[in-house]
Design brief:
The chain is of the alpha/beta class. Among the domains are: about 180 residues, 3-Layer(aba) Sandwich (Rossmann fold), CATH 3.40.50.12780; about 210 residues, ANL, C-terminal domain (GMP Synthetase, Chain A, domain 3, 2-Layer Sandwich), CATH 3.30.300; about 190 residues, Alpha/Beta hydrolase fold, catalytic domain (Rossmann fold); about 60 residues, no CATH class. The chain is built from 33 helices and 42 strands. Strands 1-42-41-40-39-37-38-36 form an eight-stranded mixed beta sheet, sandwiched between helices. The protein is globular, with a radius of gyration of 32 Å.
């Protein structure tokens, strides 16, 4: 019997995580409900839930878009004559080739909202406002559009704009769109080098700009920057100023005032011409932190349809509502907000700085904003300031908050609920790349803390790993064609750069460059950018997981976790020594006013990360700096910080609004590396705890450390343990086994051992990981041989029973490691009987430890002992133990991967590659014959693993190669399965054959290594703990 089930999600399954439920009346009246009913009527299909609706929209995207266009007011589509989508490949398909439209005309369609309805209200820092109705806005757009035509600007021309977020920016943008020209915008705070990097690639014909200085401006005056910019854009034929003041540029180019141009023209003269559905509308720019910014061209029709879908169906925007999104003209959310006019919604703009923390809430209250768009950073700023907006402002009109720009953490959902009001807080995420959202809100679904409510309709968003859908965190991809896919990059006629950026990693599907995790509730959690992943000592660490924990530490304002690569040498320091890179995590933080990075705060950071994430997430170095590098769109730049930390030249400082902070970061890391930590003064062995405190402070790199601080919660691992115990052995003469720190993880406990007469009598294989009552649970080590990697799991288990770890002989360097699973099992059984004389026994084994656990169960069963629990935690077998069909499937996949790897290599690279594979094959033969491999295990190659640990690991590798699992009749087997290794054979066919009394498969999220760290370890603990509790009843 085999049964499979997912582990219960420890977050989504709790009622506390549900922070908002919509009213039945609101759900029944939502536009999403209305559209779903229309789609059901047209297709004859029922859509009982959002999951079924989304699945249909992806599978039958043509039918979806056809129905949506017909459902929208003002879109004419002749039945049977208009193609919906030409092509089936995401990279090349295009939509509605027969439709024509005018983007600006659609936004100002008076059939959606009448001419007298409000269209835009501009708010200024001095408290003044300027409001226009839809009729007035349409009139001004027509006037300026006609003036642009009179100046010779035509369809297809490129217009660049440097603008503040006000009503004139709205008029200018819609005027450019109205004549079919293409617009690229930026903000006035951007420096002239950054502006030039972007606009010089476009050969623009016209520059539109705000040129007057404002009291809140910083740095070089706007007019000076624009004068320099205009001088270096040789294709310009003129400049148009948007301020009331006269144009302040010192330029020989023809210059005009937008207001003067509008006054000279009669709006009725302008003809609202229609253009091809996806004619170039906007050019947006990548951040530029890795080189010159990419110029991404977006089509009018795709942009408009995507925004209408998101606004009407996902945000439920309607005529008569007001939207304010805190943005600038340099960010895609400005374009996104602009399109809200197409839904009849009034757009609120604000030109000013965040002079006080409550300024945006005041705007929301005073303007009776319905939908407020903000960022996690602003929400955290309000929380840290102790602001309670609901007590200070009338927010009765506010119905929804949208948040984007960074990961929105669980705690922020609760802060909004408790301090603003009970309302939908929607975490939305997409990108400049698609000028829209992949995941966002949903008026018909509950709000769950930490999650985006739903995947965007007609976008096949999935989490992918190694070319297929992942169970947990993976790359965000979209598997089907969609209208808002950009037209391409500027100056990329072959499309090669565009293909490389979005389709090179996973051919045929769009790859966004973000990490995403789909949740059981149908939502999604974002885990940051894929280019920010830290690879530290062979473990991949997502910075977003670090930030999620740090968000709860009130002293920290912002944080960036980056990787420091330290070049080291393997062997003597001479030219013959091989070099390798030792990776470390550096945590850069900015602190709230009045806070200081003390030893206590360092300890809090390390402890919280060890408890809330894992030991791998604990930074090696923590530095407080005045500022962190920020792009012009307001996002922190991990790439720039990483380059500064590693002493590299920053690729593109012009992409940052504060490049000066990089020098301070370089100085901070240099100072840290040259000034050692000053440890506690007492090093006398007469006071053991003081001496140990000195050792710990030196190893961990900060002071003070208290006697009750936990080694693992400070970020200790097996490598640090080896270093620390070697120091103790040399100084005290006590040669303690590696297991010592698992059972005595504090200075106080370790000091008690050192003061004892015979501290070395600890069992070399049996380690108490957690005290309790009743029969213990035994957890067998993984491939490293140590149980330190199981410490987090032991602490997370939902059981009152004691938990022991079983670890390999040889970790103390005094005994030879065992090289047969059968021998390990016999040794471990003897140790187990020292704390539990007879069964029933509860066994679990992680990775290779699962092989040892099942062999222990076999040997115990043969002598009549009962096994109450046998749990294998993602245990693989050697591929030659697979059934023939599974073995053939693995070999075929292996051959395909090797061919794919070889295909793009040069001749010399192919020779080196094949030589490496030949060496690996020879090692596999040696292992099958029972001899150690000649080459280091690739899993730890290049890592600074101490020789004693390497010998144990190589013995484990040999033991796995020769072990054959036999059919087990002692009871059922529980198999906890993580995401599959692509380069390993699927072990389930073996375990199905071995489990004579039944196999239960529990699937958890995360990879093989991630499953033993937060948050995934809690799923494993819940499964293992509940099974152990049931078994003991």
């Amino acid at each position: 019997m085999v049964c499979e089930s997912p582990a219960t999600d420890p977050v989504s399954s709790t009622s506390q995580a549900n922070v908002f439920n919509g009213r039945d009346e609101a759900i029944s009246e939502s536009q999403l409900t209305s559209f779903t009913a229309e789609l059901s009527r047209q297709t004859g299909l029922a859509f009982p839930n959002y999951e079924s609706l989304h699945a249909f929209s992806v599978r039958n995207y043509r039918a979806f878009w056809k129905c949506f266009v017909n459902w929208l007011p003002g879109f004419e589509m002749i039945e049977g004559t208009t193609a919906i989508c030409v092509g089936d490949e995401c990279e090349t398909a295009y939509f509605f080739p027969d439709l024509k439209l005018n983007y600006a005309d659609k936004l100002l369609d008076l059939s959606v909202a009448s001419a007298g309805e409000p269209a835009v209200t501009a708010c200024f820092a001095d408290g003044t406002r300027w409001a226009l109705t839809r009729g007035e806005l349409r009139d001004r757009v027509a006037r300026l559009a006609q003036a642009l035509s009179d100046l010779g600007i035509v369809e297809g021309d490129c217009v660049v704009a440097v603008m503040r977020n006000d009503v004139m920016a709205v008029i200018a943008a819609l005027s450019v769109a109205a004549i079919g020209a293409t617009l690229a915008t930026s903000s006035t705070e951007m420096g002239s080098p950054a502006l030039l990097e972007r606009f010089s690639q476009l050969s623009p014909r016209l520059l539109i700009a705000h040129t007057a200085t404002r009291p809140f401006d910083n740095g070089v005056p706007v007019a000076t920057k624009l004068t320099e910019l205009a001088a270096k854009l040789p294709t310009l034929v003129g400049v148009i100023g948007l301020d009331d003041e006269c144009l302040l540029l010192d330029t020989a180019l023809p210059s005009f005032s937008a207001r003067a141009l509008m006054e000279r023209v009669d709006a009725s003269v302008f003809v609202w011409k229609r253009f091809a559905f996806n004619h170039p509308l906007f050019i947006l720019f990548s951040s530029g932190t890795t080189g010159k910014p990419k110029c991404i061209v977006h089509g009018a029709g795709g942009t408009l349809l995507e925004h209408l879908k998101e606004h009407r169906l996902h945000c439920d925007l309607r005529a008569g509502e007001r939207m304010y999104f805190h943005t600038s003209c340099a960010w895609m959310m400005w374009n996104w907000q602009l399109s809200a006019l197409a839904s009849g919604t009034e757009v609120i703009t604000f030109d000013g700085s965040i002079a006080t923390v409550d300024i945006l809430w005041r705007l929301v209250a005073d303007l009776r904003v319905t939908v407020f768009g903000t960022s996690p950073t602003y929400l955290k700023m309000c929380e840290q300031a102790g602001l309670v907006p609901s007590e200070r402002f009338d927010l009765s009109h506010l119905r929804t908050i949208l948040s984007t720009g960074a990961v929105l953490y669980d705690s922020q959902f609760f802060w909004v609920r408790d301090n603003v009001k009970s309302l939908p807080l929607c975490s939305i995420s997409g990108g400049t790349d698609i000028l829209g959202c992949f995941v966002l809100g949903n008026p018909n679904l509950p709000i769950i803390a930490g999650e985006s409510q739903s995947k965007s309709l007609a976008l096949g968003v999935q989490s992918w790993t190694n070319g297929h859908e992942a169970d947990g965190v993976g790359q965000l991809v979209c598997i089907n064609p969609f209208p808002s896919r950009p037209l391409g990059f500027v100056d990329d006629p072959s499309g090669a750069r565009f293909h490389s950026a979005y389709f090179g990693a996973n051919p045929g599907v769009w790859t966004q460059g973000d990490f995403i995790e789909m949740t059981p509730a149908g939502g999604a959690r974002l885990h940051g950018r894929t280019d920010g992943v830290l690879n530290v000592r062979g473990v991949n660490v997502g910075p977003a997981e670090i930030y999620r924990v740090l968000d709860k530490i009130t002293a920290i304002r912002e944080a960036l976790a980056v990787q420091l690569d330290v070049e080291r040498r393997d062997g003597p320091i001479d030219d013959s020594a091989s070099r390798f890179s030792d990776q470390r995590i550096v945590l850069l933080i900015t602190l709230r006013e009045g806070e200081v990075l003390t030893g206590e705060l360092r300890k809090q950071i390390r402890t919280n990360l060890a408890r809330g994430a894992s030991i791998a997430h604990v930074p090696d170095i923590i530095l407080a700096v005045a500022a962190l590098p920020t792009t012009h769109s307001g996002k922190l730049s991990e790439i720039a910080a990483r380059e500064a930390i590693n002493g590299l030249a920053v690729t593109n400082a012009a992409a940052l609004r504060n490049p000066h902070c990089l020098q301070a970061i370089k100085e901070a890391i240099n100072q840290y590396q040259t000034e050692p930590v000053v440890p506690s003064s007492c090093v006398s062995l007469e006071n053991v705890e003081a001496y140990l405190q000195t050792v710990w402070e030196r190893v961990f790199g900060f002071a003070p450390i208290a006697t009750d601080d936990n080694f693992f919660e400070l970020g200790g691992d097996s490598l640090l343990a080896v270093s620390m115990l070697a120091d103790l052995a040399e100084t005290t003469g006590h040669d303690l086994p590696l297991s010592t720190l698992s059972s005595a993880p504090t200075i106080a406990a370790l000091g008690a051992l050192l003061r004892a007469d015979s501290p070395g009598i600890l069992s070399p294989v049996l380690v108490l990981l957690r005290s309790g009552v009743g029969n213990p649970i035994f957890i067998v080590h993984g491939a490293s041989g140590t149980v330190m990697g199981c410490w987090t799991l032991a602490q997370a288990l939902h059981t009152s029973r004691p938990v022991y770890g079983l670890q390999a002989l040889g970790l103390d360097g005094l005994q030879n490691p065992q090289q047969r699973i059968e021998h390990m099992a016999a040794t471990y059984i003897e140790a187990m009987r020292s704390v539990q004389r007879a069964g029933p026994y509860a066994l679990a084994g992680y990775s290779l430890g699962g092989l040892v656990a099942i062999e222990i169960a076999q040997q115990l069963h043969r002598v009549g002992e009962l096994i109450e629990l046998l749990c294998l935690l993602d245990t693989y077998v050697h591929e030659r133990r697979l059934p023939w069909v599974a073995w053939a499937e693995f070999q075929l996949g292996y051959a395909r991967r090797q061919y794919g790897a070889l295909r793009d290599l040069s001749s010399s690279q192919k020779i080196a590659y094949l030589r490496d594979k030949w060496t690996a094959a020879a090692d596999r033969v040696r292992l099958r014959l029972g001899h150690p491999a000649r080459r280091t295990d690739p899993a730890v190659a290049g890592l600074d693993v101490p020789p004693v640990l390497m010998r144990v690991r190589e013995s484990m590798r040999l033991a796995m190669s020769v072990y054959r699992p036999l059919r087990y009749n002692g009871g059922p087997i529980i198999y906890v399965r993580a995401q599959r290794f692509e380069d390993r054979g699927d072990p389930l066919p073996v375990w199905r054959r071995v489990a004579a009394c039944g196999l239960t498969i529990i699937r958890v999220q995360g990879s093989h290594t991630e499953m033993m760290s937060a948050p995934h370890v809690h799923e494993v603990a819940m499964a293992l703990g509940s099974l152990a509790a049931i078994s003991s009843d």
